[in-house]
Amino acid sequence: MVPIIQLINISRNYNSVKAVKHISFNVQKGEVFGILGPNGAGKTTIISMMITLLKPSSGKIFIKSKDIAYYGKEVRKFVGVVFQESLLDEDLTIRENLDIHALLYISNNKLRAKRIFNVMKLTNILSHKNKKVEELSGGLKKRLEFARGLLNNPEILFLDEPTLGLDPIAKNNIWNYIKHLQKKEKKTIMLTTNNMEEAEKLCDKIMIINKGIKIWSGTMRDMKRKGKTLERAFIKIVQNE
Amino acid sequence: MNNIMTESWAIAKRDLKKRYSIWKDIISIIFIFAILIGAGFGLNKIIKNQNLGQSYDSFFASGMIGVFIAILAMSIGIDLVIDRRGFNKLLLVAPVSRISIILGKTIYLFINSLKTLFVTAIITMIYFNTFSMLKVIVLVPIIIFSTLLFLGITLIIASLIKKQNTADTIFQIILFFFMFFSGAMYSINPFPEIVKYIFYINPATYVVEVFRYIISGSTFINFYVSTTVIIILAVVFSSLGIYLYDKKLRDG
Questions:
Q1: B160 found inside a domain
Q2: Which of B38, B103, B127, B234 is most exposed, with minimal Cβ within 10 Å?
């Protein structure tokens, strides 16, 4: 089967610093693929290259068999992104935030309104639609970020540390959404995290990187065999690199 | 084309929704008009015998409107290139072209900021008794091309310079250059021929002269020559600016 995401020998340099070095991997349609690594390992840089925010210094990235170096605009139509940091307009309402963003993807007024309604329903924020973002809790804000990432009904959803800074209840809610998106909405999901529990709950496959180098890849079950706990296995893999 | 218009309007709509305020507009118009007239009126009593063909207050006010356009256009260009956080980051991962992003931000600039100058220019014309409908019509494309010119210059510089501090210093120097070597505050005529060339290579000189002609009716450089220079430079600088901006975005 042709992978939906394919990275071939990707590197990225910031001046003399090599942030990502010769990374290759494939993601199959419908999978949840996790990139794990310590802080500063290069996880966000890899995602940034896949969503066309950064240009790789060398190597090729194919999304749905399209080389993103040449079909960037087309690829952006079927990917959704939820960034690590909040990129919401705090002084606008939930509805206004979604409306403005939807204009970038859907030109038909009726379709746009329907899509906004659907994503609010899906992420369970419909009852808060007229609230200003500044009045929302961290968990609700994250759900709004998800709603915005889903506006274009993307086939692939990129999540950069999706539960960073959330309390256990909000975190659990987000994990349930992600599972729902994979199982019911048939989305391919690519996420970065350094939370082992998150990786175990969500990911079908994982790749561990450190200092920009891929040091291990496989399933969570494979990883568990490396140590008594996932945390220990992770530390062992990173330290043995 | 339809796509570009929709995308640009979405971007402009967001900025308008977030930042538009009628009171801010009214206060800005009163403030700018008061500065132009107040400073010009005060200096009118001191500065004499310049052979300006008009009073100094009208000379100063009309010239400074050109400089204000440069300042506003450059501020939006800086925002475009430097601010990669927030909404700009979302724009970069959405299926919108770089041209739409620039147009969207420029539409906002036109609506929110330049209309202030447009209204100020009209009030200034009324104040100096030089108002005509034809001048108002001519003012619109002149404002658009002048903005594109300065926006283009800003995009070129900001895209080529990597360090924020260096860029800030260069922008300050350029603004001083635009202000003091454009004939906005004094006549070009008394300067030695060799110095005049400095004024002639400054794009702001042509913008200042065009605005002066429209608002006060006199100019040192032929109106058609200035207009042609502005249009050519606007096309060249904005095209090059968009190309370099796009390249900078893709290179990260």
A1: yes
A2: B38
Widest CA span in chain A: 56
Q: Collect all residues of chain B within an 8 Å Cβ-Cβ radius of residue A55.
A: 250-252
Mean pLDDT over all residues of chain B? 82
A9 three-class SS: strand
> Cα distance from A234 to chain B (closest Cα, Å)?
31
pLDDT in tens, A161-176: 888 878 888 888 889 8
Residue A202 CA to residue A182 CA, distance in Å, equals 9
Q: Quick check: is B10 in a domain?
A: no
A96 near B CB under 8 A: yes
Spacing of C-alpha B153 from chain mean position: 11
Q: Which long-range contacts (CB under 8 A, 24 or more apart) does B26-33 make?
A: B28/B116, B29/B116, B29/B119, B29/B120, B29/B123, B32/B68, B32/B116, B32/B117, B32/B120, B33/B120, B33/B123, B33/B124, B33/B127
Is there a domain that residue B6 lies in?
Answer: no
Amino acid identity, residue B194? I
- pLDDT at residue B49 greater than cutoff 70: no
For B84, the closest chain A residue by CA position comes to A53
Q: Is B229 part of any domain?
A: yes
Question: How many domains does one find in chain B?
Answer: 1
b/e A105-130 (16+ beta carbons within 10 angstroms → b): bbeeeeebeebbeebbebbebbebbe
3-class DSSP assignment, residue A47: helix
The DSSP bridge partners found for residue A209 are: A214
Query: What DSSP state is assigned to residue A64?
Result: T
Query: B63 lies in which domain range?
Result: 23-251
Q: Å from A130 to nearest chain B CA?
A: 15
Are B191 and B199 in contact by the 8 Å Cβ rule? The answer is: yes
Q: Edge-to-edge strands of the sheet including A79-82?
A: A79-82, A156-160, A188-193, A32-36, A205-210, A213-218
ipTM above 0.90, yes or no: no
CB pairs under 8 A between A and B: 65
CA-to-CA distance for A96 and A125, rounded, in angstroms?
Answer: 13
